[in-house]
Design goal:
Elements lengths: L2 E7 L12 H8 L3 E7 L12 E2 L9 E2 L1 H12 L6 E10 L2 H8 L3 E6 L4 E2 L1 H6 L3 E4 L9 H12 L32 E2 L2 E2 L9 H19 L1 H12 L1
Parallel strand pairs: 1-2, 1-6, 4-7, 5-6, 5-8
Antiparallel strand pairs: 3-4, 9-10
Protein name: tRNA (guanine-N(1)-)-methyltransferase
Enzyme class: transferase
Subcellular location: Cytoplasm
Length: 233
């Protein structure tokens, strides 16, 4: 069964974006995954097609209305068990583990927030899982949704030319990825580490592991700490 992605947005023209190119684009052409971009504004009922209103209690900005968004969600997910994600800077950080869990399913529904946010009642009533791609704020959820889909689609079976490629990347196994090199052997006075051209596969794997641990310790010590806590727990 092909992976089905439905994105609820005020800017459906932003999709599929970069996902229409390269490996993801070819996979879409082959029918390995599909994308349906739903215009939230189509579910407004007033003559102005309003989708937002002022925040209760006052304050700056506007808030997406629960009734309009709920109708959009219901139209997409009736009798549908796909996870419902809401891209939000206050959501749980996206991890490679979560990406793999989503890729193992039959699809995903992603709601792209705009303005100051989404009415809390629709988040609760429609079981939206808030997901963040980082500790920063975007103008809308669309770029974040594209990132989430990119991470998922690339590891769907048969999308990458070599499925083993996904097993030796950053965050797989709790470590950042080791350095990479290719020909020429010497470039601007810098040489490929001799172990990588030794033909000793055991030594190569040992070197890569050591490099991955060192890079993770220097740049993301939190990953090592999390791995230790998980092991001790």
């Amino acid at each position: 069964m092909a992976f089905r992605a439905s994105v609820l947005t005020l800017y459906p023209e932003m999709f599929p974006g970069h996902l229409g190119f390269s490996l993801a684009g070819k996979a879409m052409e082959r029918g390995q995954w599909s994308l349906d971009a739903v215009q939230i504004r189509d579910f407004a009922t007033d003559k102005h097609r309003s989708v937002d209103d002022t925040p209760a209690g006052g304050g700056a900005g506007m808030v997406l209305k629960p009734d309009v968004l709920a109708r959009a969600i219901d139209s997409t997910s009736e009798n549908d068990t796909r996870p419902r994600l809401l891209m939000s800077p206050r959501g749980r950080p996206l991890t490679q583990e979560r990406v793999r869990a989503l890729a193992a399913g039959d699809g995903v529904i992603i709601v792209c927030g705009r303005f100051e946010g989404v009415d809390q009642r629709v988040i609760e009533a429609r079981g939206l899982e808030e997901v963040s791609i980082g500790d920063y704020v975007l103008s809308g959820g669309e770029p974040a949704a594209l990132i989430v889909l990119d991470a998922i689609i690339r590891i769907l079976p048969g999308v990458m030319g070599n499925d083993l490629s996904g097993l030796h990347e950053s965050f797989e196994g709790g470590l950042l990825e080791h350095p990479h090199y290719t020909r020429p052997q010497e470039w601007e006075g810098r040489e490929i580490p001799s172990v990588l051209t030794s033909g000793n596969h055991g030594a190569i794997e040992k070197w890569r592991r050591e490099q991955a641990v060192q890079l993770t310790r220097e740049r993301r010590p939190d990953l090592l700490e999390a791995a230790r806590n998980e092991k001790n727990g």
